[in-house]
Design brief:
By secondary structure, this protein is an all-alpha fold. It has helices at 2-14, 19-32, 35-51, 58-74, 78-91, 96-108, 112-125, 130-150, 153-165, 174-194, 198-211, 215-228, 232-245, 250-262, 266-278, 286-296, 302-318, 323-336.
Length: 337
């Protein structure tokens, strides 16, 4: 590395206006561990490029600004790094490397609103890259917790709208999209109930059904708000619409079955539980697990319920279920029986 650095330095003495030589030199200095020296060299590369008559191609600026931002970040100059990444994005709004760096910085600083926006932009550009979706799911979970803690209903609605507006393809990322819809929709549901703003939540989910994708989740959350108001017939109707769109929708089936139990429609409740069983969905949450078992035991013919319960036990025993799931299931069976 030392010999290569020396050669680049000699080249700069001959052609000091060559911005690309400065950039290559900066990269080597960075590898050497001299971060401050790398920052100076990258900045010199940008300065030289701006003074040349012939404009450098876009890839050069993308590369240099991204590299400079990373060097500044490593040097502890976070604000300067953020400004540099923003400059890179100004030149190329689709520069994923810079967007990703900004997202990571904001997430590390617990600035989840901005991190969510950056990760959302990234997955919009590369929806098939699962690791980017994983990042978005993680931030949506943390951001949801913050919104719930701070009672930010307006912001929760705005964030969910931002996500829905991107209309991300569900086919390759169904599980991750479901988790985001659950995280953000649950915040709106809980805050609408907590603040007594039922109409606000109802209006949002009704508009979401009309305008946006993932209507199964909008019907589910709308049903959940109506159920909190004891409007059970309307809630059942919305849960049924959610299940009509996605027959294997465990939470909607569970909630629908629970309302059937409340309205003394035991065999319909059992059918919901049976559909969940057939989908081989497991509920590790103790409360949801208990509701599931109650649905399986709801049939007016005890023999049918016992057969369903036996099938559940066989599924758990023959699968690689976590010991905690087995313990929760057996405990709930014991409590209910």
């Amino acid at each position: 590395i030392e010999e290569a650095i020396a050669l680049y330095q000699k080249a700069i003495e001959i052609v000091p206006e060559n911005c690309r030589i400065y950039a290559k030199l900066a990269k080597l200095i960075m590898r050497q561990g001299n971060i401050e020296g790398a920052v100076i060299a990258y900045q010199k590369a940008i300065t030289q490029a701006s003074t040349q008559k012939t404009k450098q191609p876009a890839w050069f600026y993308n590369w240099v600004y991204s590299e400079l931002g990373e060097a500044l970040e490593k040097n502890g100059q976070i604000e300067e790094a953020i400004a540099t990444y923003h400059k890179a994005i100004e030149l190329n709004p689709n520069l994923i490397s810079a967007l990703l760096k900004l997202a990571e910085i904001q997430e590390n600083q617990k600035e989840y609103a901005q991190a969510f926006t950056y990760y959302l932009e990234i997955v919009s550009l590369q929806p098939k890259k699962q690791v980017f979706f994983q990042n978005l799911v993680r931030v949506s979970k943390n951001y949801s917790k913050l919104l719930l803690k701070k009672n930010y209903l307006d912001r929760a609605i705005a964030v969910y709208q931002e996500f829905l507006n991107h209309k991300l393809p569900r086919k390759a990322n169904a599980e991750r999209i479901d988790r985001i819809c659950h995280n953000l929709g649950e915040v709106i549901l809980r805050l609408s109930v907590r603040q007594g703003q039922f109409s606000r939540g109802i209006t949002f989910f009704q508009e979401a059904i009309d305008k946006y994708p993932y209507k199964d989740w909008s019907y589910y959350h709308l049903g959940s708000i109506l159920a909190k108001q004891d409007k059970l017939d309307e809630a059942i109707a919305n849960y049924e619409k959610a299940v009509a769109i996605r027959p294997k929708f465990p939470l909607a089936l569970l909630s629908l079955g629970e309302l059937f139990l409340q309205t003394k429609q035991r065999n319909k409740a059992f059918q919901c539980g049976l559909k969940i069983l057939q989908s081989q969905e497991n509920f590790t949450n103790e409360r949801l697990n208990r509701i599931f078992i109650r649905l399986l035991l709801a049939h007016s013919n005890p023999k049918k319920s016992q057969e369903a319960l036996q099938k559940l036990i066989e599924q758990i025993e023959n699968s690689s279920s976590k010991p905690s799931l087995k313990a929760t299931t057996y405990n709930n069976i014991g409590v209910i029986l």
